[in-house]
Give the backbone structure.
Amino acid sequence: MFLDELLQAFFNFVHPALRRIRPKPPNGRPPRAAKGVRSLEWKRKDLLGLEGLSAEEIHLILDTAESCKQIYEREIKKFPTLRGRTVVNLFYEPSTRTRTSFELAGKWMGADVINVSSSTSSVAKGESLRDTARTLEALGADVVVIRHSAAGAAHQLASEVRAAVINAGDGAHEHPTQGLLDLYTIRERKGRFAGLRVTIVGDILHSRVARSNIWGLRTLGAEVTVVGPPTLVPREITQLGVRATHDLEEALAGADVVNILRIQLERQKKGLFPSLREYARLYGITAEKLESAGEDVLIMHPGPANLGVEVSEEVARDPRSAISGQVQNGVAVRMALLYLLTGGRAQDAVLG
Ligand code: CP
């Protein structure tokens, strides 16, 4: 291995044209260009939010996810790409989709995946986030995936550890991996972002999913409208470059994508609408209300969905609904992130 590196350094020095030749990856697989992947390389240590990510960085992740998605077609879903790496899922809030898909993503790529939840770890004994971070570092975590009720928790952790940190949702701030899988799903189904009319419906105030979607969609050139009851649509949201309204019919007219948010009762300190029944009547997405949207409107929901409240069962199961597809794409996107954040290059074969 050392000799390989020495020879590579020598060739790179004597002949600039050879600089594109890279040492073999640790598992010995020769690099192979992934179709459609750009030459940009991932430079960030962490993935904390979509705010500040460039369009090129977002497309780099989505292109890498596209390569990862080929794993779905394989009978044996196991590759050694991350062999010897340790991924820790540190979840201080409940999760089904995000935690499970990170676990699958890590395991399919050969990493050791450890799940730590606040109720079963020393967090329950009062251990601080800082001490938990140091413990995980000492145990050799390469990637820490954190979900926490406090906005900024992932940023704090990232500043405390050498491991790559992925924000799996911090309070009402950001949920970047959900944002990325939503962007992936939109790109897959609509093929473009520029000029695409995306309407985000519901509890904008408490939604980290909305914020990550808005950052990503605006960076990629989509037109975003947010709609919900006045108590759930903060005025400041327009500063992110979106149009805000309380008129659902108007917001749905001509929409290419409707992303329906979950009502986050757990984050509401006081009643922000009279009742769930009232919310469903005014803002719940039904087939009838969807008629004003584009005929081939893409229906999305990050889950878990309150069927019959923010979306009817009929709409959730409509052929235009991408809800199951979003969940599937979540694994590919998280595989891509684990790969890129552990030093993988997008233009090499991710799956071998
Ligand atoms: N969409 C989402 O974050 O789902 P979970 O809470 O199940 O992870």
In short: Residues 323-341 form the longest helix (19 residues). The radius of gyration is 21 Å.
